[in-house]
Amino acid sequence: MIYYMVAVANGFLNTINKMVNVKAGECLGTARGAMINYIEATVIAFCLVYVTGNGGEFRLEYIKEVPLLFYLGSICGLAAMIFLIVGTKQKGAMTSTVLMLLGQLGTSIVLDYVFFEVFRPIQIVGIFLILVGITWKEKLREAESALNLAKANEEETE
Amino acid sequence: MIYFVFLVLAGVFQGFMISLNGQLGNYYSLFAICFFVHAIAGVFLYLYIKFKEKKPITFRGVPKYVYAVGFMGVIMVSTSSWCTLHIGATAMLSLSVIGQMTSSAIVDHYGWFNSTKKPFRLKQLPCYLLVLVGVLIVVYG
Q1: Tell me, what's the ipTM?
Q2: What's the mean per-residue pLDDT of chain A?
Q3: Are B39 and B114 in contact (CB under 8 A)?
């Protein structure tokens, strides 16, 4: 149960983190805004590894033992950021949210099968419902924004 | 069409990121995962800024709360890797969607971070319930 609660809390923090990153991007530019996050998190994590007594994990021999593929997660994160920025500029927030989620959840089903050998076809139904729910919510949001914009224009002409 | 592919690819790469970070958890403690994830991406980003943008790197002129972003990064990467290792990437991502939707609704409702206020409407509730049902199916189905 604790994992489920932490996963929800992670999503909660994700939104706050995005908003703060957007602010950093506005003030410094996208790349420098992201750089603050990476530098700070690297230093904090480095200190915490030693504070928690796990400094031995930074031995070169140990680092080499871990398959190189597993270190590539952050490169994937950077690639995702580039595709997301380019795609969102052209297609808008709603399409980007839904398509990205489709890619994320689809990939995670495949990788859960590869790494944990778990595949439950019913999960595809669940993912479909999640995507429908989010598309519906975004459509309502777009409709409301359009209505507000029309009202504001009307008031301006009056 | 190419931009649709880009957006799906963004999701695919994020899915890979979360799964691969989770796999690092078989070898490293949570904070060491955070270190590698941020340090490797940081080096690439530094090279991009240095050679592509060719401008000096400064972090001045931002509101103070922006400096909390590194702490949030550490918490997010360590918790997502921890959860992925125990419940799998699909369940982790689906549950995270619930958290994201709820927090987005709160931020929009109160207009936090200087965003435009968008009050929560009851007619949005069925969308949230549908997502919740989908997540429950993914997690318990």
Answers
A1: 0.80
A2: 83
A3: no
A123 touches B at CB < 8 Å: yes
Q: Provide CB contacts within 8 A for A4, sequence distance 6+.
A: B87, B91, B95, B139
Distance CA A128, CA B141 (A): 13
Q: Does B50 touch chain A (CB under 8 A)?
A: no
If one compares A90 and B92, the residue with the highest pLDDT of the two is B92
What are the pLDDT digits (tens) for B83-140? Answer: 888 888 888 888 888 888 888 888 888 888 777 777 888 888 898 898 889 888 888 8
Say whether both B69 and B124 belong to one domain. Answer: no
Same domain, B81 and B104: no
C-alpha A118: how far from its chain's center?
23
> Across the interface, do B45 and A15 touch by the CB < 8 Å criterion?
no
The A residues from 79 to 108 touching B (CB cutoff 8 Å) are: 79-81, 83-84, 86-88, 90-91, 95-96, 99-108
Domain boundary among B87, B112, B132: B87
In 3D space, the residue among A70, A123, A112 whose CA is nearest the CA of residue B32 turns out to be A70
The two tokens of residue A29 are 């530019």
CA dihedral B102, A130, B70, B57 (to 10 degrees): -120
Structural contact between residues B135 and B94, judged by C-beta atoms closer than 8 angstroms? yes
Contact A120/B at CB under 8 A: yes
- Domain housing B111: 89-141
C-alpha dist (Å) from residue A157 to A18, A148, B62: 36, 14, 38
Q: In one letter, which amino acid is B123? A: K
Q: Are residues B51 and B81 in the same domain?
A: yes
Residue where one domain finishes, among candidates B43, B72, B87? B87
Domain ranges of chain A: 1-66, 68-158
DSSP result, B58-124: ---SS-GGGGGHHHHHHHHHHHHHHHHHHH-HHHHHHHHHHHHHHHHHHHHHHTGGGPPP----GGG
